[in-house]
Design goal:
The chain is an alpha/beta fold. The protein is 47% helix and 12% strand.
């Protein structure tokens, strides 16, 4: 299932680092690099609801390209939202400004599970169209596909929206383990189908975001979450594209997240990369992990903290420089451009 790829993309610093091969410089991209930190993003999104903007191929293409043009990053990430595949299969949900995804009828019973039908490529034809447009524009810059992991999707569906304590989610996970396993298994199929559409359209790598899984203890992750995440990674393994796995507050889960099937493990800012590599073990590249809030400090402070990240990464088999979470909305775009240049200069081989 290898797909024909632009040789320049295959040889890019980003994909080489993901494959743990020598690189001309440490590659850089930023989670949420396409978004509210950019004035050009705010301009093109004006008056367009979030989910609608994810379904307009020309708009998705423009937004995805904006940070590549502005910052000179080594990879683009497909502009979307983790609930897009759920909306595509007909669930009544919306993204409310200042709140996040809100689900009209939470999923908490066996009968509710029937609302989660399989995702087909036709459900997300706008994704295929946007990625084809993007890969034509990006030239040698690789495109990263994007999806939410089963646990994080489940937490939104069960809670009905964002949650601090995930009480309904954990109540279901502990109280009805079979229903929980069936829910995550179904979400794994939907997620895998969504990633396959992106890879087949031209994405050169994929990242699975498990934003909320840091709420779990390792034993619960291994028993109740890892089988579904592994199913997603195994489903896309035949395409032979790098698979990145990222969560927030997952310092205790790093080894397990690698074990789930990732080629690259994303690390937030709480664990230094030289410690993260010990937890993850050999055979994986790491991605991360500058604290996004550092970008609000002085240029000297940003460079000093970036240097710490690069020093901690010096012994890694493969390193992709990123933030330890997404770009904060009020970040000065100039700080991101300067950081990209700094990492490129400091790591030029």
């Amino acid at each position: 299932m290898d797909k024909p790829e632009n040789p320049a993309v295959a040889d890019s610093a980003f994909l080489r680092a993901c494959r743990r091969e020598p690189v001309p410089h440490t590659p850089v991209w930023f989670m949420r690099q396409a978004g509210r930190s950019l004035p050009e993003y705010l301009k093109v999104r004006e008056g367009i609801p979030m989910l609608e903007s994810c379904m307009r191929p020309e708009l998705v293409t423009e937004i995805t390209l904006q940070p590549v043009r502005r910052h000179g990053v080594d990879a683009a990430i497909y502009f979307s939202d983790i609930v897009v595949p759920l909306k595509a299969i007909g669930l009544d949900l919306d993204i409310k400004p200042g709140v996040g995804p809100v689900v009209e009828q939470p999923i908490r019973s066996r009968a509710d599970l029937e609302r989660l039908r399989d995702l087909t490529p036709e459900d997300v034809s706008y994704v295929t169209e946007a990625i084809r447009m993007l890969t034509a524009e990006l030239g040698p810059t690789p495109l990263i596909g994007f999806a939410g992991a089963p646990f994080t999707l489940a937490s939104y569906l069960v809670e009905g929206g964002p949650s601090k304590n995930h009480e309904h989610t954990k109540a279901l996970m502990y109280g009805d383990p079979q229903l929980w396993a069936d829910l995550l298994d179904r979400l794994a199929d939907i997620t895998a189908a969504f990633l396959k559409v992106q890879i087949e359209a031209g994405a050169s790598a994929v990242q699975l975001f498990d934003s909320w899984v840091g709420a779990l203890a390792p034993a619960d992750y291994r028993r109740s979450v890892m089988p579904a995440s592994r199913k997603v990674f195994e489903a896309v393994a035949p395409y032979d594209v790098p698979r990145i796995h990222f969560g927030v507050g997952t310092g205790e889960l790093l080894g397990l997240m690698g074990e789930a099937g990732a080629d690259v493990v994303g690390v937030d800012w709480r664990v230094p990369l030289d410690e993260a590599v010990r937890r993850v073990g050999p055979g994986k590249a790491l991605q991360g992990n500058l604290d996004p809030a550092v970008l609000f400090s002085t240029r000297e402070a940003v460079e000093s903290k970036a240097r710490e990240v690069l020093d901690a990464a010096s012994g890694l088999e493969g390193h992709v420089f990123n933030l330890g979470h997404g770009v904060l909305p009020t970040t000065d775009p100039g700080a991101l451009t300067a950081l990209t240049e700094y990492v490129h200069e400091q790591t030029a081989r």
